[in-house]
Design goal:
Shape: globular
Number of helices: 17
Order of helices and strands: HEEHEEHEHHEHHHHHHEHHHEEEEEHEHH
Organism: Neolecta irregularis (strain DAH-3)
Structural class: alpha/beta
Radius of gyration: 22 Å
Helix content: 25-40%
GO cellular component, one term: nuclear inner membrane
Pfam families: LCAT (PF02450)
Strand content: 15-25%
GO molecular function, one term: O-acyltransferase activity
InterPro entries: AB_hydrolase_fold (IPR029058), LACT/PDAT_acylTrfase (IPR003386)
Length: 417
């Protein structure tokens, strides 16, 4: 059992390429992090030629058995990126059968299509946790670490940007009118707009800002952030959809696409088993009400969450919530598992995909939720999850079947990819 910790702050490319100077043998060398190379040689016998005398015994050569990769949260995107990198020519150079030859199963404990809460963090330095603080807490936080300062910090950490919602208006985040995961048809919750504005009119009677779909929200984000941030996003990540096989083949050569499962094909690995194990039943950030405030002493307006908005049961202090695990919406956790990877366009080897949902049943007096919680982080202590992982690692694949307790299949069927 090996723990492959990574630096979540930096881009995935830099996990491999970042270097530092080190004095060795009377000269200065650049020693690179080589995160993905080290992960590769943990699985198959390799040597890193630019790090002297470093040979790591592999799991495969030592036991004769394939490896099970278990990933949580951003780690799932790291594994997807690794699976493309390791086989790509000029990168991992593992060849087109490396995943099939070396990986028994990929256990994904989280989402695959990002999380909405990454968006306000980058736009205005806020999230549900800070938007809903009381007045005294807000005063203290703003005095010592303001929204603007928090946003600037988060934009400098590329890893945060990798978790922005993927798929645009089509896949899951709404087309301006409705969204696949609207709770009902009675108007109690409509998440067709990702960013909503109260529609306050200026002195000329014109609405200052209309509601925005997720695609329009990205344009709004670019409008309120510096060019350096735009370049960081475009050179490292992508948030769209590949609609043809030709696009997917071309994206095999483009690392900025490899953290978005809607823009790359899984490796051709007919023996690979994929398990999506995630929680449901906990209110999760899904869309936001915003307003623009004018900075004191200037004519500059900045976007902030409008915490005066409380709409019906699902919106509190400007944050609208939906089904999920408290951090990741259901549609992000489940879509690729129940539908996306059932399509041979994205899963050319027809790797087996099993989806196992766990309902949130927190312990009343347990600070971390107890053995039946499905909270995004606390689920790692859930007894059921640990048992599932051990069964998979022990090769008891036949014991684990689909367990769907949410409406993810109905939601997925509303998406016309």
């Amino acid at each position: 059992m090996h723990s492959a910790a990574y630096d979540w702050r930096i881009s995935y490319t830099n996990l491999e390429e970042r270097g530092k100077f080190q004095y060795w043998a009377d000269s200065w060398l650049i020693i690179r992090d080589h995160y993905f190379s080290k992960l590769k040689v943990r699985i198959t016998m390799q040597s890193l030629t630019d790090i002297p005398q470093m040979i790591i015994e592999s799991s495969n050569s030592h036991t004769g058995k394939k490896t099970v990769l278990v990933a949580h949260s951003m780690g799932s995107l790291i594994v997807l990126w690794f699976m493309k990198w390791v086989e790509a020519e000029g990168y991992g150079n593992g060849g087109s059968t490396w995943i099939n030859d070396n990986i028994e199963a990929f256990i994904n404990v989280w989402s695959l299509l990002g999380t909405p809460k990454a968006f306000p963090v980058l736009l205005s330095g806020e999230m549900r946790d800070t938007a809903q603080l009381n007045a005294i807490s807000v005063y203290g936080l703003e005095k010592f670490f303001s929204k603007s300062e928090r946003a600037t910090l988060m934009r400098s950490l590329p890893g945060i940007s990798s978790m922005l919602p993927k798929g645009g208006d089509i896949i899951s985040w709404g087309d301006g009118v409705s969204a696949p995961d609207d709770l009902d048809n009675e108007g109690n919750q409509n998440m067709g707009a990702f960013l909503k504005f109260a529609g306050k009119r200026g002195t000329d009677g014109v609405v200052k800002q209309t509601n925005l779909t997720i695609s329009e929200s990205f344009e709004y984000l670019f409008k309120h952030t510096p060019d350096t941030f735009h370049k960081l996003l475009k050179s490292n990540f992508s948030y769209g959809i590949a609609r043809t096989e030709e696009q997917l083949i071309e994206n095999d050569k483009r690392p900025e696409k490899w953290s978005n499962p809607l823009e790359f094909r899984l490796p051709y690995a007919p023996d690979l088993k994929i398990y999506c194990l995630y929680g449901v039943g906990k209110l999760t950030e899904r869309s936001y009400w915003y307003k623009e405030e004018v900075l004191i002493g200037s004519n500059i307006s900045i976007p902030v969450i409008d915490n005066t908005i409380n709409v019906k049961a699902h919106t509190e202090k400007g944050v609208e919530t939906g089904e999920g695990d408290g951090t990741v919406p259901l549609i992000s956790s489940g879509y690729m598992c129940v539908k996306g990877w059932k399509n041979s366009l994205f899963n050319p080897g027809n790797a087996t995909v099993t989806t196992y949902e766990m309902e949130h049943m927190p312990g009343r007096f347990d600070f971390r939720g107890g053995p039946h919680t499905s909270d995004h982080v606390d689920i790692l202590g859930r007894t059921e999850l640990i048992e599932l992982i051990l069964k998979i690692a022990a090769g008891k694949h036949e014991d684990i079947k689909d367990n769907i307790v949410s409406s993810i299949r109905e939601i997925a069927d509303r998406i016309n990819l």
